[in-house]
Amino acid sequence: MSRARVGGADVSTEHFIGGEHVGSGAVFTDLSPIDGSVLAEVARGGEREADLAVAAAAAAFPSWAALGPAGRAAHLHRLADLIDANLDRLAEVECLDMAMLLRSLKARVIARGARNFRAYADLAAAYEERAWSSNGTANRVLRMPSGPAVVITPWNAPFMLSTWKTAPALAAGCTVVLKPAEWSPLSCSLLADLVQEAGFPPGVFNVVQGIGEEVGAALVAHPGVRRISFTGSPETARHIGVAAARNIVPFTGELGGKGPLLVFADCDLEAAARKAAGQYDDAGQVCLAGTRLLVEEPVAEPFLELFHRFTDEHVLGDPRDDRTTVSPLIHPEHLSRVECFVERARANGDEVVRGGRRAAIGGLFYEPTLVVPRSNESEIVQREVFGPVLTFQTFAGEEEGVALANSTPYGLSGIVYTGSRERAERVGRAVRAGTVWVNTFLVRDLTAPFGGVGISGIGREGGDYALDFYSDLKTLQILEGSCR
Ligand code: NAD
Q: Which residue's CA lies nearest to atom 9 of ligand 1?
């Protein structure tokens, strides 16, 4: 069995299929964004591994489905307890693999993985079938587990996002084949170890490592798959949607964002500016980030002054260091991508008023950057950068602010700062997005729906919405008085 030493942890570099660690002839190299060191040579799956994993998930499905919500909940609770017990190890590996701040990983992000499993164990167990009589029949709506589900996740927050998608699938009675992203694959290998330790039957949860266009494409095209749950970019979602359509398989896509952060003159300006500067956290590699700062004209100047003051407080550095607030970007290719966005903005006549270059400390750091676009049509306003790059625009009045907020093809999230309750209601409804936060950000209730509109997504996760996705809803009608 092939394993790598990553920090203090021993991590499998193989696939996890049918309860066994399985290698591949080929490997890919996984680098740490912190210092570019090689963390592991990871098994590079292809069609063979996709077939094996789907077959394992299909074989495990009937008995996992038959176990019922309470039986499955016991497994999910055990897994959640193991995540909590291994929090430090998981956080260290995730930090080395994707460079998210270690203190955030320890304080909330990894623990959210445990919360995901507990929440879905409880939600599935509490589900009550709808029952009613009409037309002389006793009717019920049953949630039937759909079958093997493929879960594909991106490189940012891979552990949290993988558990967020896997938990409802398992709770609903589906079996899972998870393919993590090739730039941060390791925490999902640790998840597989914990699943095994929690005593899940072999094949209920499988991990296949590899490149998206190779094993990812093979998995989503596989005829044995009954659900596909994807988080990543709209570009990849288009490929997955085509594959899903070929097999008539439902899929959800949690995709990119270009969220507005609307600042009205009647708000707590200091709180708004602090939150705006906070959009550089995690080097801006956050799908929900409010990357377009839209500020009402009368407060534009004082807002900018505060924003620069708070942004000056950022410390770029090693994500394991408690003083660091902005970590390196995930990969040299991604750093170049971010850099090219800003170069194209300059060439387009947009004004870079802050940052706009690689940081002097070297490595994969890019300076927190602010761009005043030449027009709202500029690429830097209209396309997701997924890095520490914000834009700044002003507006005159609510109508113009909302129009600007809704002027991109995305619609994942929005942030609004206002002191008026009526405005909070009006603008909250008018901003086109799956989630709108007013005077706060990233507060999540796991029972609430989560997803995007426009090119930010299709379908909803969260609460019962995800359980419904992983189920075939069936109407059962029995003629009243016809049987005893
Ligand atoms: P990506 O689309 O490049 O890759 C995502 C996953 O898809 C990876 O595992 C990749 O290997 C796989 N993949 C690539 N091509 C594939 C194919 N043809 N078939 C099957 N799988 C394939 O995205 P990324 O760069 O890893 O992640 C960044 C994107 O994810 C950003 O757009 C970000 O906004 C988005 N994101 C969205 C959410 C959300 O909840 N809405 C959360 C996090 C990230």
A: 181
- Is the minimum distance from the CB of 256 to ligand 1 under 6 angstroms? yes
**Average pLDDT score, the chain:** 97
* Joined tokens for residue 402: 């909302």
* pLDDT attached to residue 88: 97
User: What is the per-residue pLDDT across 110-132, written as a single tens digit (0 to 9) for each?
Assistant: 999 999 999 999 999 998 889 99
- Report the separation in Å between the CA atom of 264 and the middle of ligand 1, taken as the mean of its atom positions: 33
Strands lying side by side in the sheet with 435-438: 351-354, 369-372, 389-395, 290-296, 259-263, 413-417, 435-438
Sequence-ordered list of residues with C-beta below 8 angstroms from that of 108, at least 6 positions apart, any chain:
none
Cα 152 to ligand 1 centre (Å): 8
Query: What is the spatial distance between Cα 213 and Cα 107, in angstroms, rounded to a whole number?
Result: 34
pLDDT on residue 253: 98
Residue 53 burial (10 A CB sphere; 0-12, 13-18, 19+): buried
Q: Is 236 in the pocket of ligand 1 (CB under 6 A)?
A: yes
Ligand 1 center from residue 326 Cα (angstroms): 22
480 has catalytic annotation: no
Lookup: tokens for 287: 């799908």
Query: Could you tell me which residues come within 8 angstroms of residue 126 by beta carbon, excluding any fewer than 6 positions away?
Result: none
**Close Cβ partners of 148 (under 8 Å, ≥ 6 residues apart):** 54, 57, 58, 61, 174, 175, 176, 177, 224, 225, 226, 227
Is 270 among the catalytic positions?
A: no
Q: Is the pTM of this model over 0.90?
A: yes
Question: Cα(297) to centroid of ligand 1, in Å?
Answer: 36
Q: How far is CA 202 from CA 16, 124, 181, 358, in A?
A: 10, 22, 23, 47
| Nearest CA among 163, 173, 150 for reference residue 227 | 150
Task: Decide: 95 and 15 in contact? Cβ < 8 Å.
Answer: no
Contact 384 CB / ligand 1 (< 6 Å)? yes
Distance between the two ends of the chain, CA-based, in angstroms?
57
Which contiguous run of DSSP H or E holds residue 277? helix 269-277
Strand bridging mode 369-372 / 351-354? antiparallel
* Predicted pLDDT at 326: 96
Reduced to 3 states (helix: H, G, I; strand: E, B; else coil), residue 483 is: coil
325 touches ligand 1 (CB under 6 Å): no
- Of 95, 174, 267, 287, the catalytic one is 287
**CB of 154 shorter than 6 A to ligand 1:** yes
Strand order in the sheet with 227-231: 20-22, 15-17, 205-207, 176-179, 149-152, 227-231, 251-254, 457-458
pLDDT tens string 334-366: 999 999 999 999 999 999 999 999 999 999 999
Query: Which ranges of the chain have pLDDT less than 70?
Result: none
Q: Is the CB of 411 under 6 A from ligand 1?
A: no
Nearest CA to ligand 1 atom 42: 287
